[in-house]
Give the backbone structure.
Amino acid sequence: MVITPERRSSTLQIDPSVALEARLLGTLIRPGDKEYDESRQVMNALIDRHPAYIVRAADAADVIRAVEFARAHDLPLAVRSGGHSVSGLSTVDDGLVVDLSQMKAISVDPVARTVWAQPGVTSAEMAAATQPHGLALSTGDTASVALGGLTTGGGVGLLSRKFGLTIDSLRSVELVTADGRLIVADATQHPDLFWAIRGGGGNFGVVTAFEFDLRPVGMILGGALIFPVSVDTIRGFADYALNAPDELTTIGSIMPIPPLPMIPAELHGTPGFSILACYAGDQDEGQRVVAPLRALAEPIVELIQPMPYPAIFELTEASSHRTPNTSRAGFLQALTDEVIDIVVGDALGGFDPFAMVQLRPLGGAIARTPNEATAFAHRDKPFFMAIANVGVERQSQRWVERMWTLVEPHMSGAYANFIGDEGTGRVKEAYPGITYARLADVKRRYDPTNLFKLNQNIEPANAASVHRS
């Protein structure tokens, strides 16, 4: 809601946002400002919302002022770091958006092997900052995904099987609470909040800085293989990649073959199966580990080679552009032959030209941390599947829903960072049982009025009904 003259007290002569603007180190953007149309956009081009105010924060003090302003004027409050929320929850109509994208400071301590970073830092920027020291952080696999949303949701990426989720390297956070305090949460200070932040999303405040442990990563063996789609190729990939050494993390995608110059033109747009691979370890051993992937079938193209870790993000460049996005996703207890038959049959039977089915073998270091250690509650699941379509036509969106109807019976749980606007039931699938109850208790203590509700929302628990554990 824009605060118009009609909404002001008769004694108030100045729009109160003018006072907010004067106190900001960053920028306040309103409808009509020249930056407004660009600033209100998020990565999903199907989302078209018009905030009343966008606070492009420069530091934690700006975030505090924005939170206080939204609370004082009863404005819906959205928080954006990279803007990759598939459901568009990083923006809002007639409310206030706290934009963290310009908060990009990074400080690497190569001796302690730690890094301090603000929430606007992207996966590619983090990799570039730490690589000169022979170090890396396990982040997302898309270059432009920022730390803010990625980390609080969990953080699955191309080093996950070796080093775990992004939250598994988290040492502490600096966070602005709903009542405008700036606090630090770690294993000893606000440990309940620190547990909740690691997977519970943006429900508990606005994280303005993270401190992570870094891991030694130099050259990797990375890149992509593209094969024709077949049941045997996907079955072989799933069986091998899940049980391969932890150093190998892969993502398999059933999708139209891209028009790369090294691919014959007659294959462009036909169904293909691509494998994005990242082996973080000894290069000679990596060649032996990757060899069974190369042998799955005759590749249409092979692009796996030694490279500095940051270079692999160049292969995810397409995901860093603003595009329409309709998607559904979840975990699998097993990648059964029935599920493979469903997706291969669809691909060979007239695949939508903008469609993709993504398969992520998990396990490794992800699974060695107990489910209850953090709010990310699906570490025991061996596979993650996402169904996505970047077409703007309604038929493209219908394809996603049709495919989801076929595979949903095989799903077992949800990942908060991949849930759309799907209701409370799906949120509880991300946080099953005691996890949800524990998160609701933390929510009650740190955000009792549910100011931070534009997320995969966990409502504050009723104090009288909370079961302490």
